[in-house]
C-alpha cells in the first residue's frame, strides 16, 4: 500500500527562482531566506520520497480566464517548466506519475470531489520554486528532480475560490486515495503558496507577521479550527494573495491525525519550521511535518 509519511509547506515567489537561477543565493538580501531551507534540503536527501503530491496554484500560465478549474490533477508523464515572460526557468523537466495520479483521480472523484484531469500543461513558479527551495540548484539537462511529482492545481486566483474547509476535506480524500493504491510507495504531500502578501491596490506590500505565525500554529496544532477560518479573514489579515494559504490545508488534511474531519491520535512531529520577511513582497513561511 502507498502511504503519506510527511507533509511540506512552503511559500513560492518568482523572485526566489530568479535568485537561484542567477546564482544570487549568497547575496545579503537572499542569504537569510535560503539558510532557512538548508535543513530541508538535507531532510529531502535523508527522507527521499517515491512520489511528491504537490498542491500549488497556477498563475494564469497553464490556465487563464478562458478556463478556470477549481481543482486540477496532472496525470501526464511530464510537465515542462513554463515561460512566464522571461523564458522558461533552467530547471529539469518535472516527471509525473501517471499510474498513481490516475488512481487518485478515480478515487477522489468517486469520493465526490470533482477534479479536472490535465494530460498536458506547463508548470509555473507556483510548482518549480517550492521544488527548487527543497532540492537546491539542479542542472536542467544533467540532473533530475529526486522523484516523480503529481501536480495538483487549485484556483486561488479568480473568485470564487474554494474554502479552507473544502480543501481540508479534500486532503482527507487524497489520503484515502493514496492508501488504496497497491504499490508500496512513500508519498509526500506539499501545500504551497502564501503567507501574507498583497501584490496590488492600496494595500500592496502588506505583510502580517503576527497573523501568519498564529495561523501556522493553528494549522499545525488545531487544523480543524484552522479549516474554519473564512476567506475574509485571509484577505483582511494576510492580503489579497494570502488566500493561497488555503492550499496548505489540503496537505494538512492528508496527515494521519485527521480522520472523518476530526483530529485523533498524536500530532505530527514538527521536523522544521521557518519564517522570513520579506522575499519580494511576500512573507515566506515553511514547515515540515512527519507522521508519527
Ligand atoms: C510574488 C508572490 C507571489 O505569490 C506571486 O505569485 C507572484 C509574485 C511576489 O512577492 O513578488
Ligand atoms: Fe503566488
UniProtKB/TrEMBL annotation:
Domain annotation Extradiol ring-cleavage dioxygenase class III enzyme subunit B: ranges: 8-284
InterPro entries listed in its UniProt record: PCA_45_Dioxygenase_B, Xdiol_dOase_suB
UniProt-listed CDD domains: PCA_45_Dioxygenase_B (cd07364)
Alphabetically ordered keywords of this record: Dioxygenase, Oxidoreductase
UniProt entry tagged with the keyword Nuclease: no
Domain of life of the organism encoding this protein: Bacteria
Molecular-function annotations in GO: ferrous iron binding; protocatechuate 4,5-dioxygenase activity
NCBIfam families: PRK13364.1, PRK13365.1, PRK13366.1
Protein name: Protocatechuate 3,4-dioxygenase
Organism whose genome encodes this protein: Aquitalea palustris
Amino acid at each position: 500500500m502507498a502511504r503519506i509519511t510527511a507533509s511540506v509547506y512552503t511559500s513560492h515567489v518568482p523572485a526566489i527562482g530568479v535568485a537561484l537561477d542567477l546564482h544570487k543565493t549568497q547575496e545579503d538580501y537572499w542569504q537569510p531566506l535560503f539558510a532557512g531551507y538548508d535543513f530541508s534540503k538535507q531532510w529531502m536527501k535523508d527522507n527521499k520520497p517515491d512520489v511528491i503530491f504537490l498542491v500549488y496554484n497556477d498563475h494564469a500560465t497553464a490556465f487563464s480566464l478562458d478556463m478556470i478549474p477549481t481543482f486540477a490533477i496532472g496525470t501526464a508523464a511530464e510537465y515542462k517548466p513554463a515561460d512566464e515572460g522571461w523564458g522558461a526557468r533552467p530547471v529539469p523537466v518535472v516527471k509525473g506519475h501517471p499510474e498513481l495520479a490516475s488512481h487518485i483521480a478515480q478515487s477522489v472523484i468517486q469520493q465526490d470531489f470533482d477534479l479536472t484531469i490535465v494530460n498536458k500543461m506547463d508548470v509555473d513558479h507556483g510548482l518549480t520554486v517550492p521544488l527548487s527551495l527543497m532540492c537546491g540548484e539542479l542542472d536542467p539537462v544533467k540532473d533530475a528532480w529526486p522523484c516523480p511529482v503529481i501536480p495538483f492545481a487549485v484556483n486561488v486566483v479568480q473568485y470564487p475560490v474554494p474554502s479552507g474547509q473544502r480543501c481540508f476535506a479534500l486532503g482527507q480524500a487524497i489520503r484515502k486515495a493514496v492508501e488504496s493504491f497497491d504499490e508500496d510507495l512513500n508519498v509526500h504531500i506539499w501545500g504551497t503558496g502564501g503567507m501574507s502578501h498583497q501584490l496590488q491596490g492600496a494595500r500592496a506590500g502588506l505583510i502580517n507577521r503576527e497573523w501568519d505565525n498564529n495561523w501556522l500554529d493553528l494549522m499545525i496544532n488545531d487544523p480543524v479550527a484552522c479549516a474554519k477560518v473564512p476567506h475574509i479573514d485571509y484577505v483582511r489579515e494576510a492580503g489579497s494573495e494570502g488566500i493561497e494559504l488555503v492550499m496548505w490545508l489540503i496537505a494538512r488534511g492528508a496527515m494521519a491525525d485527521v480522520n472523518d474531519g476530526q483530529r485523533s491520535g498524536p500530532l505530527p512531529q514538527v521536523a522544521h519550521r521557518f519564517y522570513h520577511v520579506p522575499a519580494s513582497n511576500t512573507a515566506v513561511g515553511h514547515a515540515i511535518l512527519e507522521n508519527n
